[in-house]
Amino acid sequence: MHLYEVLRRPLVTEKNTILQELGKYVFEVHKNANKPMVKQAVQLAFKVKVEKVNIINVHGEKKRFGARMITTPSWKKAVVTLKKGDKIQIFEGI
Amino acid sequence: MKVTKEKLDNSQVELNIEIDNEEREKYLAMAYRHLVNRVAVPGFRKGKAPRFILENLIGKEALLKEAMEHLIPETYSQAVKEQELDTVGDPDIDIVTLEPVVIKASVPVRPAIELGDYKSIRIPVEPVEVSEDAVSNYLDNLRERQAVWEPVERKSQSGDRVTFDLEAMVEGKEMINEKELQLVVVEDSKVLTPGFSKSILDMAGGEEKEFTLPLPEDYPQKEFGGKECNFKVKVSGVKEKKLPELNDDFAKSLGNGFESLADLTNKVTTDLRQVMEQVNRRKHEESVVEAIVSASTAEYSQYLVEKEIDRIIDEKVRAGGKNSVESYLEDFKKSNEEIRNEVKDEAQKRVSGSLVLNKIRENENIEVNEEDVDREIEKLVNISGGNQDQVKSSLGSAQIRASVKNSLTLQKTLKFLSDIASGAEAGEKDTSAEKETK
User: What value of ipTM does the predicted structure carry?
Assistant: First the structure.
């Protein structure tokens, strides 16, 4: 997996916007990515210093789709804490 | 906020309002608060999206547009207050730039009226004379209305009423077959077909006659139009119009408590005089107002004229018994433009007239008190045949009161002016009016 494939998209939600004030930015990342890869990818993409990365596996949900049950895909969420003062502009301009 | 004022023609004022960014920010914040509750941003509950997220989603322009909706009316009214403008009507607002916000508003202001010397206008009232001809004409009319048809034993003449049976055949087909028809025969009457009336002249009761005449092309029954028609007429009676003699008996027969012919003549004369006086009075008032208007300068905006045009057209439409302008226009085969142009002069006249009159009313402090209004309303309701309840409800209605009061004040002002112009004011009676005419 190339580093460029690690970050899939920034997640902009009410909760994540609050986290931004603490210098934490949330991304959806590649299913097979791990913390060091996310750290590298963020530092490369946004030219910032990453303090730490927390990763959460979001399990897919079972949903009814008409008569049959389907499972929405599982995905990986990464909460990236930046060095104090660093900012990622992309979250402010979707 | 910076406001510059510029006077335009037609008593319009153009305001140039510049709003600095700080003030604009205030309105933007307000707009955000309004919008955030309406817009659903994915990832956020309603009303919870922060401003920069919302701005990114809907664009800065949309936010500005929302802000303008509050900003424009508020800053406009503030500017009007600041500049102490006496506006009439709504402004035309143009947004010049958004950053910084500059708006241009042109608004009609209260017309500036320079009254001419309305007290020195002298127009004599034309004296009323009821000529004998007019009276006798009127009496003739009365006689005509009281006329009776008397059967006579002679041949029919022009002006007689003839009773007859009629059979009319066109190419072997029966068109009319009626008994006891009545017709006042006049030589050149066009009843049925030209010449028909003439044909039944000079016939006595019991006489029969058969004749053929062409029907007119535009005969109502299309199938018979333009064809020869065979008429069979059987006259059963001839009646002559008898006018009552002009004497005391005639006067008495009219009722209304007339005792003699002299009584009636007197009454007719005074009635006619009154009518003519009224007409004269109105004419006089009109010419006085016209004179005053031409002596004064009234500068008013096109806006007022346009509104008056609307009103005139509305009146016309209603007078024509139509319920929409379109159907009225269709009837007269005119476009909206044409009709507006037609009534423009009238509208201008009305506007300047009413403005000048209003000004004079203000100058002279002409007012109508409430009791007069009460009396007038009662009178009006009585004329229209209403009962006491209606009087009461009308008295209570503010709208009716206002309109009655308006018209009374107008009447009073007109009377005031017309009195001055006819020289009826104390101290300069008649003589001055006569001098003016010489």
Answer: 0.78
